[in-house]
Prior knowledge:
The structure holds two protein chains of two kinds. Chain A is mainly α. Helices cover 69% and strands 1% of the residues of chain A. Chain B folds into two domains: 1-37 and 326-370, no CATH class; 63-324, Orthogonal Bundle (ABC transporter involved in vitamin B12 uptake, BtuC), CATH 1.10.3470.
Amino acid sequence: MLESFQIIISLLDSTIRIATPLIFCAMAGIFSERSGIIDIGLEGKMLLSAFVAATATFLTGSPIFGLFAAILVSCSASLIHGFACITNKGDQVISGLAINILASGLTITLGIALFSRGGQTPPLASEQRFMPIDFLFLDQLSFVPVFGELFVEVISGHNILVYLSVLAVFFTYYVIFKTRFGLRLRAVGEKPEAVDTAGISVTKMRYQSILIAGMLCGLAGAYLSIAHGAGFGREMSAGKGYIALAAMIFGKWNPIPTLLACLLFGFLEALGVRLEGVELIWIGEVPVQVMQALPYVLTVVLLAGFIGKARAPGAIGVPYSKEG
Amino acid sequence: MSDSNIIPKWLSVGVIPLMNLFLAFCVSGLFIFFIGENPFKAIFVMIKGAFYYPGAIGYTLYYTTNFIFTGLAVALAFHARLFNIGGEGQAYVGGLGVGLVCLIFDQHVVGFLVTILAILGSVIFGAIWGIIPGYLQAKRGSHIVITTIMFNFIAAALMVYLLVNVIIEPGQMSPETRDFASGVGLEQIHILAKYLGLEMAMSPLNLSFIVALFVSVGFWFLVWRTKFGYEVRSLGHSETAAIYAGIKVSSTIIIVMAISGGLAGLVAINELLGVHNKLLLGFTAGYGFTGIAVALMGRNHPFGIFLASLLFGALYQGGTELDFEFSSITREMVLLIQGLIILFSGALAYMLNPLVERIYIKYYGNYNNA
């Protein structure tokens, strides 16, 4: 009994670690797509900012500087996306794809040119990273049964970005549903003509939304390379941007359900790792690939309308042209 | 998005795409310059690597073959205004078709027949991986872009599982099947040349290239000379108009995705039947994604796709030469160039139109009024 409790605790702990970059990216996706801009480029922005975060931190020794550099680069990628598909009315999927491929090539090329380590950045020392934070009263709390352990192992002891990701969800919820900006943002994604008629610039709204998305992707990238990890590795984002996209769809473009989807997908991955080589009663060994594929399968099933209905914002993917 | 009708076609279809390509290369050159190398030397090395060394052209055409298949796959879907990002997964699963056919039949059936069946296997398996997203788009309204992305990942997981646990050669560490029997496979061109008494440098170029050329002609015929092609293009132009014209939209979407997937699946014959002679992990190596760049550059026309494939073939083969000649730039530079080409030739394809239109009107007046 005690052992299985330990297993659950450690599973939940890794779930949170895995889910953090997904949460940032999925919130970024919500901002972008709610304003009508498809964002396939989450993956590329995360990869770019992971690289820049590690590089800037290594060169300056300050993770804070690395974090800001990551956000700056991610926002620049957002601006390229915006220039292509808002200003030039280009195809949003193609533009996002270009950013992803560009990010792959750019990070490896620059990594090799700068550090000659096959695309990796040099490892960072622990004072150059965002390290786990232990909460106060840990010692006293750890004696409390169940809750104490849960608090010490699962809630406490993560780096600052993990807690920031939870804040990001509430920030997203608040901005999108409780502010005037958010109302306009949603309107731009559903009926841009209406917003335009009200005298609000569709272009400006959309640029603002994708810049917020850029910031959030920057946080995701920084988490990978200077908080969770200690340096950048080739193709470090490894499809997480796409899983975040799936989580966003799974959460039907709403922040709180999307958070739950990110946690679910994170849990599936943690479980997959945990179950590797373990024989389960009745089922036998579950291949780790099943767990890896499950988020994508679930998203496909959801999109097909077999569990509820996922409806994208009305004007998504359509460049806005003023009449006349 | 549509081509401008203010300027003549040779400008909008010929000159502007070349200008976009030129921009992509300029920006790539800037990156090389910032890294501290000479961009002109890099281009020289790549051209030499792609065309000059013995066997280089063979390698270039071998890559070209893959890009023709994936480029056509993306292009056909584009004609129906469907964005098939799933070429990578369809090619991968196509490989499963080849692998299964060969592993099941190659000990019992004559090699030539197994090869034909394996080619069919690649098409059918690739088609299945296209049909499912097609069906979900047509009947359940799920967006094809998202579904095909998801199917790429599902294909990757499926193939890793099968190769690691099921069809791996027993006693083998790396996840690949046993070699196919000796009579199975598509002959490489340099070996065929030897039969004819010609001396050719060794390269992986094989009969798949000839298949790709025939398929290209077939593609042209299908899209521009058949009723089905007409329906596909009408659907791409306006779904509402297609419905009023009595075109069955959902079945057209499903058939288009089937053919598109089948075309992508053909990558497997070049890679597995022509070169590796077994099914192995990750043989698609991003060719499916490059197909998107190829289709965009080639303007969804088989001739344009052939030229774009040739360019990407040269980039891939020339890119490997970068590793030998430079210490600080590698073949991954090609990914960067590829990303820039997708950006400029795809997402920013019409950026230069207003500029070119203004200049044209200034000097020649309005083309349509003339």
